[in-house]
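Q: What structure does this chain adopt?
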Amino acid sequence: GLAQLVREYDAVWPLSKRDNAASQCFELLGIDVMIDEKLKPWLLEVNHLPSFKTDSPIDYTIKKALMQDTFELLKLSGGDAKQYRSQASSKARERLQATV
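A:
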């Protein structure tokens, strides 16, 4: 489950290496499966650009949980986006001032 993914992610990206967010990339894949009458799963396809459109309450619930788990796995919070924008803006100003 998620706890195992977090342990594996932490093994590859210890907190000491997470200060350079630009070096961390991942791809979220959509996996379509069909479950037969014996409850055996069958892989139908893997989508590299899954839809996040929610057509039903259950669809919303599943995708919301997926996004929350993804943010938890990556240890992201709303403050991270604000900090990133601030750092990017500062770096852009530095580049502009260096060319003047």
